Amino acid sequence: MEDSPQRAVQGLGSFPWYVGGTQVLGLACVVITGVWMGSYHGGYAWDGSGQEFNVHPLCMVLGLVFLYGDAILVYRVFRNESKRNVKILHAVLHLLALIISIVGIVAVFDFHNHNKIPNMYSLHSWCGMLTFVLFCVQWLMGLGFFLFPGTLMALRSWYLPLHVFFGLAMLAMSLATCLLGISEKLFFSIQHTYSQFVPEGILGNMLGLVLVAFGILVGYVVTREDFRRPPHPEEEALSVHFKTLTEEGGSPNSP
């Protein structure tokens, strides 16, 4: 029993390395995507051409993978900050991810419409749209349950495990959708030379591996017990105050 706090402290010694690893991998995902679309597919534009399509993968990796992963990590990284401030940062990062992903979705629909290509026919597009819709629902539910003061504590306690589970599940869905998109793009672009280990194919495959590594490392940091945010005195005081009010028949909405 006495060794548990010591083990937790020792475990925290490796915490910055794990967090740093997530940032290196996340940035690598964005950079590799940018290089792939920039070097092999002509760069970026907003004119209905293939260069507008290139905006789509870059925005989706930046928004629904890197920024989304960072939004999940903030409760582990900012362990000693006010919980309300961390909640706000969590919501803001999700909002940035939402805005950037909307730009990416508009880009691909605009490209398809401009070039008379059907929309929403592939498994990649179905998984991507499902992930995006669930992401929006998750963000709105999080705002309603955790940032607005009128929500009952009992409802927050009921919803919190669902919020955490679906947060990680949707990161996994985002990564799976990216892997489908990478395979789809490679087959469309280099179908006849892919099996010859051409540089573009290797780069796309490497991007897929880095995406998987990012997701695994984020999941590990978030689920490892040693890295959990410790309870803070003022938060425990509020919890005790709430329990006292409910036991005495007071209003659970009181501050």
From TrEMBL:
It is found in: Cytoplasmic vesicle, Secretory vesicle, Chromaffin granule membrane. One of its GO terms (molecular function) is transmembrane ascorbate ferrireductase activity. This is Transmembrane ascorbate-dependent reductase CYB561. PANTHER family: CYTOCHROME B561-RELATED (PTHR10106), TRANSMEMBRANE ASCORBATE-DEPENDENT REDUCTASE CYB561 (PTHR10106:SF14). Its cofactor is heme b. The chain crosses the membrane at residues 12-35, 55-76, 88-109, 129-148, 160-182, 202-222. Transmembrane reductase that uses ascorbate as an electron donor in the cytoplasm and transfers electrons across membranes to reduce monodehydro-L-ascorbate radical in the lumen of secretory vesicles. It is therefore involved the regeneration and homeostasis within secretory vesicles of ascorbate which in turn provides reducing equivalents needed to support the activity of intravesicular enzymes. The keyword Iron applies. InterPro entries: CYB561/CYBRD1-like, Cyt_b561/ferric_Rdtase_TM. Residues 21-223 form the Cytochrome b561 domain. GO terms for cellular component: chromaffin granule membrane; lysosomal membrane. It holds the Pfam family Cytochrom_B561. It catalyses: monodehydro-L-ascorbate radical(out) + L-ascorbate(in) = monodehydro-L-ascorbate radical(in) + L-ascorbate(out); Fe(3+)(out) + L-ascorbate(in) = monodehydro-L-ascorbate radical(in) + Fe(2+)(out) + H(+). Homodimer. Keywords: Cytoplasmic vesicle, Electron transport, Heme, Iron, Membrane, Metal-binding, Translocase, Transmembrane, Transmembrane helix, Transport. The keyword Ion transport does not apply. It is a multi-pass membrane protein.
